[in-house]
């Protein structure tokens, strides 16, 4: 496997320092190749201080040293398929109508990779894609469709940890390693011989939690699994135990999320610390796969002419706010890593501007010198990557001072909209009236423990006005409610007499089977 270690890092570092990117090729300017490594569920705050003190991530640090890290990068929807639909389309979630993990892009939607291939790039994809419709479990889609029903059911297994193997066990997430191997082999055997630029995508499932078989149909994923090899990369003393409000003090949407995620029970500090430690260890394994790709590019002599991008579809709460998983606008869930290195990218730069995953699409086209369509929700990151971050005027008026994220899927009982601008994070729900909004000042309250919406009504009014100018969110929320009901009715009719048995044995079966008639009646009332 040739796992990259400290020695290999030093070799790559010295070579990178010696071999500056060659901008000019025969016949004119050379278009760089691009490698995008996108993992699943990596908290972006781990890529800079103080979050990076909890776990050793040498290749993320390598990218920071020889490239740019974005300090405020966000998902456009904190769940797998809708987030990836935004990244591959360059469009906000309410425009793609990717409402849940079952509803993504149409298979024929034109992605940035399609356009790059059309304009002369050799393209290759390995690993997790998950941006088109029709995937994920029946439970996942039914839980999303029925979120407006007046019942409360645990939909996930209780979060837990599982230690496997010994201190020599490196390849824990074997499927991801196999896809990494495919990407590495493609670089060494195919890319090295190309006479055209290439774009390579590697999608990793880590550090997403692993399935928990006892949870039933297609399993929930509430197990944080790693080996002693990776756990040694974690600094236990640096792990922060998050503060939790009492259940009665929680925002109603947070309580629903915490309950459906099976997190309202008692957890000891040791349990919470272990969940977080195992999660960080899974991030370390992810970092090593990124390292394999960087090492392969160096070995093939391609690194100096390749732009490398590392990001994730969303973060992981890891027991912050009494939740695991994502599906939340809190930083652990919505803040994603975004690091870029390569020709034309400023080194050792930290960009404070708010950016989001819809910016990937126009950035890819900008790199490839392809005209960027005007209808995109995102904006090219290239001006920031070139070092224009300190010169606001050079960015022009096109890049907004805000980012938008929205969520319409399972484990949350109201459509949710987040506007992040300046030091503020504003979160609105549903129709803007039936559920109280949240407002956090991230400069004073980075852990988002105090909702100051009642304290600053003028700011709430101003931010809500801005949000409504971007998206008519009461109308979108209503459309999602109609969609959910239509989809559920169609699914119910397709099952015929099997309906009662099937719905009782989804992931919520442990609660449902206690009072099946009660829950069926609640759905009938909703319909």
From TrEMBL:
<dbReference type="InterPro" id="IPR051849">
    <property type="entry name" value="GAG-degrading_sulfatase"/>
</dbReference>
<dbReference type="GO" id="GO:0005764">
    <property type="term" value="C:lysosome"/>
</dbReference>
<keyword id="KW-0106">Calcium</keyword>
<comment type="function">
    <text>Catalyzes the hydrolysis of pseudosubstrates such as p-nitrocatechol sulfate and p-nitrophenyl sulfate. Catalyzes the hydrolysis of the 2-sulfate groups of the 2-O-sulfo-D-glucuronate residues of chondroitin sulfate, heparin and heparitin sulfate. Acts selectively on 2-sulfoglucuronate and lacks activity against 2-sulfoiduronate.</text>
</comment>
<dbReference type="GO" id="GO:0005576">
    <property type="term" value="C:extracellular region"/>
</dbReference>
<keyword id="KW-0964">Secreted</keyword>
<dbReference type="InterPro" id="IPR000917">
    <property type="entry name" value="Sulfatase_N"/>
</dbReference>
<keyword id="KW-0479">Metal-binding</keyword>
<keyword id="KW-0378">Hydrolase</keyword>
<feature type="domain" description="Sulfatase N-terminal">
    <location>
        <begin position="32"/>
        <end position="368"/>
    </location>
</feature>
<feature type="signal peptide">
    <location>
        <begin position="1"/>
        <end position="17"/>
    </location>
</feature>
<comment type="similarity">
    <text>Belongs to the sulfatase family.</text>
</comment>
<dbReference type="GO" id="GO:0015024">
    <property type="term" value="F:glucuronate-2-sulfatase activity"/>
</dbReference>
<dbReference type="GO" id="GO:0046872">
    <property type="term" value="F:metal ion binding"/>
</dbReference>
<keyword id="KW-0325">Glycoprotein</keyword>
<dbReference type="InterPro" id="IPR017850">
    <property type="entry name" value="Alkaline_phosphatase_core_sf"/>
</dbReference>
<keyword id="KW-0732">Signal</keyword>
<dbReference type="InterPro" id="IPR047892">
    <property type="entry name" value="ARSK"/>
</dbReference>
<dbReference type="GO" id="GO:0004065">
    <property type="term" value="F:arylsulfatase activity"/>
</dbReference>
<dbReference type="Pfam" id="PF00884">
    <property type="entry name" value="Sulfatase"/>
</dbReference>
<keyword id="KW-0458">Lysosome</keyword>
<protein>
    <recommendedName>
        <fullName>Arylsulfatase K</fullName>
        <ecNumber>3.1.6.1</ecNumber>
        <ecNumber>3.1.6.18</ecNumber>
    </recommendedName>
</protein>
């Amino acid at each position: 496997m040739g796992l990259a270690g400290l020695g290999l890092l030093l070799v790559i570092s010295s070579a990178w320092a010696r071999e500056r990117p060659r901008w000019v090729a025969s016949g004119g300017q050379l278009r760089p190749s691009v490698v995008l490594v996108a993992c699943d569920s990596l908290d972006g705050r781990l890529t800079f201080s103080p979050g990076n003190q909890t776990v050793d991530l040498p290749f993320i640090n390598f990218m920071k040293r020889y490239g740019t890290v974005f300090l405020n990068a966000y998902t456009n929807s904190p769940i797998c398929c809708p987030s990836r639909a935004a990244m591959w389309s360059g469009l906000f979630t309410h425009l793609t109508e990717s409402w849940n993990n079952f509803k993504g892009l149409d298979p024929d939607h034109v992605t940035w990779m399609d356009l790059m291939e059309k304009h002369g790039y050799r393209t290759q994809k390995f690993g997790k894609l998950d941006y088109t419709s029709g995937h994920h479990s029946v439970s996942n889609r039914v839980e999303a469709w029925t979120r407006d029903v007046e019942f409360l059911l645990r939909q996930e297994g209780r979060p837990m940890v599982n230690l496997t193997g010994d201190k020599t066990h490196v390849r824990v997430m074997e499927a991801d390693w196999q896809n990494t191997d495919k990407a590495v082999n493609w670089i060494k055997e195919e890319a090295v011989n190309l006479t055209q630029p290439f774009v390579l995508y590697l999608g990793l499932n880590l550090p997403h939690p692993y399935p928990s078989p006892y949870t039933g149909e297609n399993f929930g994923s509430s197990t944080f699994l790693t080996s002693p090899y990776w756990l040694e990369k974690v600094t236990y003393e640096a792990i922060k135990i998050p503060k939790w409000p009492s259940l009665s003090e929680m925002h109603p949407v947070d309580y629903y999320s915490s309950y459906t995620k099976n997190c309202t029970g008692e957890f000891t500090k040791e349990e919470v610390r272990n969940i977080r430690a195992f999660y960080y260890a899974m991030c370390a394994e992810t970092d090593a796969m990124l390292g394999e790709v960087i090492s392969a590019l160096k070995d093939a002599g391609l690194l100096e002419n390749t732009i490398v991008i590392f990001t994730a579809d969303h973060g992981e709460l890891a027991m912050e706010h009494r939740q695991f998983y994502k599906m939340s606008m809190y930083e652990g869930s919505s803040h994603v890593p975004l690091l870029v290195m390569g020709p034309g990218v400023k080194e050792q730069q930290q960009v404070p501007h708010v950016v989001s995953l819809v910016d990937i699409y126009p950035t890819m086209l900008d790199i490839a010198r392809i005209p960027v369509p005007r209808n995109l929700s995102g904006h090219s990151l290239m001006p920031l990557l070139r070092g224009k971050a300190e010169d606001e005027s050079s960015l022009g008026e096109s890049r907004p001072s805000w980012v938008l994220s929205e969520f319409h899927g399972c484990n949350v009982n109201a459509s949710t909209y987040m506007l992040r601008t300046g030091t503020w994070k504003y979160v609105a729900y549903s129709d803007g009236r039936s559920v109280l909004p949240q407002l956090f000042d991230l400069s004073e309250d980075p852990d988002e423990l105090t909702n100051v919406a009642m304290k600053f009504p003028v700011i709430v009014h101003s931010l809500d006005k801005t949000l409504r100018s971007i998206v008519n969110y009461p109308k979108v929320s209503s459309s999602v409610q109609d969609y959910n009901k239509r989809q559920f009715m169609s699914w119910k009719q397709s099952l015929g007499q099997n309906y009662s048995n099937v719905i009782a044995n989804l992931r919520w079966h442990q609660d449902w089977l206690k009072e099946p008639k009660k829950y069926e009646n609640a759905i009938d009332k909703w319909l």
